[in-house]
Structures are given as structure tokens and as C-alpha cells.
Amino acid sequence: MDILKIEGLYKSYKSKKEEIKVLEDINITIEDGDIYGIIGLSGEGKSTLVRCINRLETLDKGKILFFDKEINEYIDIMSLKNKELNEYRKKVAMIFQHFNLFEQKSVYDNVKFPLTLSKRKISKEDKEKIISLLEILHLKDKINRYPSELSGGEKQRVAIARALVNNPSILLCDEATSALDPETANEILEYLRKLNKELGITIVFISHQMNMVEKICNKVAILSSHKIVEEGSLAKVFMLPKSDVAKRLIYSEKLNMKLDDKRGLRLIFDGNVNEPIITMLIETCKCLVNIYFADTRVSEDKAYGQIIIQLPYYEKDIDKVKEFLRLHNIKMEEINL
Ligand SMILES: Nc1ncnc2c1ncn2[C@@H]1O[C@H](COP(=O)(O)OP(=O)(O)OP(=O)(O)O)[C@@H](O)[C@H]1O
Ligand SMILES: [Mg+2]
């Protein structure tokens, strides 16, 4: 079932002097249970998009439809007012890069806070809910601490517990791991994965860190020039990126360097190879092969994945390499990064 459908969304900010277009014709469908990554460079409009989903912004054009499991139908979130909007925000919760905790409140009171907004008394069930979330997130021994007494990872876990206290269907994570060191960031990913699996929460994961997205998301969309340039399953987009920006984002992070004007050849293995192809290539073509990047795994003696090699300098050597690969039925694609 699709839990969130974004259709033809346009958003711009208008100042007296100019109009800044931030999102153009965004179409995204998120299924219940997805961990959906939205990737893009700084300023592309990622945070604006989550703010639209959370109804903190209005749209210029388009629709955002949310499947409300309580009434078993889609609601157009732009039509929501006051009480309905408050109810919607309980179902679509959010965490941020800088945690946004209340410094003067304890861990327990921070997590309790969203429940106090509805002005009803905190019940025994509410208290149990808070405790169980603190248990899931391994924070029970920190229950009376204040944010200043917590590490970054612990603060983010408190923020996650607070976001979950109203049993949301969707958790929006805007750069939720960007302020953390890699080890702590991985730990937060583990918790998010666990919450997705055990509580069935759909996660929208906004990030510019490809390695984080790759670890957790099952689907991704890539924003470039304020539009979605690529969308689909993680495997499809990361293994076979089509747009230049996707290639640059995915490879340059993996390669961890800029190739500047160097030409690369991407070899794609989809189970059709069971020979040591690179060794054979070097022997047959009598040229050196510089490997930029390799991400392959062998299953039942067959290779899957990809290798990016630098193309030889001379055209005649390039022709030889390509001919060899064609003969061995290796799919290839020339790339300039
Ligand atoms: N309230 C606002 N008024 C005017 N312009 C804004 C406003 N909020 C954001 N913008 C502009 O919209 C563009 C997109 O901003 P946004 O914060 O959505 O980008 P982002 O992809 O989240 O970037 P980052 O990765 O740096 O967080 C930027 O050019 C920004 O300056
Ligand atoms: Mg942002």
C-alpha cells in the first residue's frame, strides 16, 4: 500500500525582488514500510520537501496524499485545518540534524512533551509507552539526565523516542546522522532499521551522505536542479545510475577523489561472468588496467556488481579493451566523472 503520494509538487520562495524556485514537478510514491532516501547536494530543496510533507510549508502547485490507516483512505494534507492538522502531525513525526531537544527538560520529559500538547492528562499507558521507547532505544538508565549530559548519539536517540511517542506511521529524518561521527551514525541507522522492522514505521531519510543512504534505504530519489532526476530501488539507482549527478554523487563518494577529465569504463557483472576477467584482459590486451572502484560479490561462482577501470590513453588500446569485453559478453558503459 502507498502511504505517501507526492504529485506534481512545485514550491518556490518569493521575496520582494525575486522568486526562488526550490522544487519543481516532484512526483514520489512511498510504500508503507519503505525506508525511502532523498538525496541531493546542499540547497537542492531536501529540507523544503520534508517541511512540505510535514505541512510546515504551503505548496505552489501539486498534491500530497497521505494514507490514513485509521480511516482507511487518502487525505489531501493541504486541506487539513487546526485539529486535523495536529492529528496529521502526530502520524508524520520528524527528527533533525541538531536533535532540537529541550535543554531544560530531562530525557523523560523530552519524550513526554508531544503528549502534553494535546492538553490531556498523562495516563498510565502513556508512561508505559515512554518507558518502552526508552528501553527500545537503550536509554532507560539515562531517563533523568538532561541533554547537556548526553552524547550526540544519545541525544539523537532521545529525539527519535520523542518523535515516536504518538505512534506515527512515518518518521521524517532530515540529515539525522550528519552531525554524528561515523560509528555513532551507524548506531543510529541500526536503531532506525530496528524501528522500521519491529514497529513497521515508514522512514523518509534525507541525506547528502551516500554511504548512509546505501546502508539503510530500500528506495531512493535523487534531487538535482530542484527536480527528481532518478528514482527507484536502491540497487537500481546505486548499481546503474543514469543521470550525471547520480553518477557523480555515487561514484565520487566511493572513489573519494575527483577524476577530472579522466575517462572511465564501467563493467557491469550480472551473473554472466565466471572467469578472472581483469587478469585475462591485462594478458590479452597487453595493457595496464587501473581500477578506480570495485564492488563485486561472487555467488555460486558467478560475479555480480561493478568495476570501474581507467581507460587506456591510446584509442587503439581502448578499442582492444572494448573488443575483448564485448567478446566476453561484459556489459560496459563509458563514463566521465
Ligand atoms: N524560508 C525561506 N525563504 C527563502 N528561501 C529559502 C527558505 N528556506 C529555504 N530557502 C532556499 O531554498 C533552497 C533550498 O533550501 P533547503 O533548505 O530545502 O535545501 P537542502 O537541500 O535541505 O540543503 P542542505 O543540504 O544544505 O540542508 C535554498 O536555496 C535556500 O536558500
Ligand atoms: Mg537541509
Task: Please provide a written account of the structure.
- The protein has 337 residues and is α/β, with parallel strands linked by helices.
- It folds into 2 domains: 239 residues, P-loop containing nucleotide triphosphate hydrolases (Rossmann fold, 3-Layer(aba) Sandwich); 80 residues, Alpha-Beta Plaits.
- It has 11 helices and 14 strands.
- The strands form 3 sheets. Strands 6-7-8-3-9-10 form a 6-stranded mixed β-sheet, with helices on both faces. The chain has a 4-stranded antiparallel β-sheet with strand order 2-1-4-5, with helices on one face. The protein has a 4-stranded antiparallel β-sheet with strand order 12-13-11-14, with helices on both faces.
- α6 links the parallel β7 and β8.
- α3 packs across α4, α3 packs parallel to α5 and α5 packs parallel to α6.
- The two termini are 38 Å apart.
- The mean pLDDT is 89.
- Bound molecules: adenosine-5'-triphosphate (ATP) and magnesium ion (MG).
- The site of adenosine-5'-triphosphate has 12 residues, from β2 and α1.
